[in-house]
Design brief:
Layout lengths: L1 E4 L6 H13 L4 E4 L9 H7 L9 E4 L2 E4 L1 H11 L10 H16 L2 H6 L9 H10 L1 H21 L10 H15 L6 H11 L2 H13 L16
Parallel strand pairs: 1-2
Antiparallel strand pairs: 1-3, 3-4
Amino acid sequence: MQLYIGNKNYSSWSLRAWLLLRQAGIAFDEVPLRLSFNGDSEFKRALAAVSPAGRVPVLVDDGFAVWDTLAIAEYLAERHPEKQLWPTDRLQRSRARSLCAEMHSGFGALRTHCPMNIEAALGEVGARVLAEQPEVQRDLQRIVQMWSEQLQAHGGPLLFGAFSIVDAYFAPVCSRIKTYALPVPDAVQRYVAAVQALPAMQAWTQAARAEHDFLDFDEPYRSAPEA
């Protein structure tokens, strides 16, 4: 299998699919592409060759392309049932899918005002965003609520006890909480730390910090950091 991804520092959707594969121990080849909105860029041309959607991530398995992170997660769960990527209990599996679907379609304010940026420390930006953007406050409150309920029900350290698709789905949110120093309860902070301590997440983070590839369209709140 090949997984087409964007910049590790910025591409939250790429992180979800990559983390799921790597942490689950599913073999794949990584195809990194430099993010670009330019229709004639290498990024767009490479994706057009494998996916009509033109976005990352894309999983290609024996020539067959699967795009969209949720579709990739479902494909991997069906292809590798032995990995138990969803909870085994029917009701808990449905709850896990509900949480992923909510993340997939919601939290637009948090995405917009706190884009993923692993190598940065933007606590001042986070404080300003929370003060000026009530929608971000509401997104963060909902995340705290859903995580707290799951951690209380399953005892942690991850949302359903053991690593699952849900943790891969919320890994970029954990990164945002750290980058922007967003205030969360201790139990939620412990969950953030548990996700960031996953070996696959550690590997992604190290690679993201090593990229040194500043993309101004992904960083409207600062200029390029000094080398």
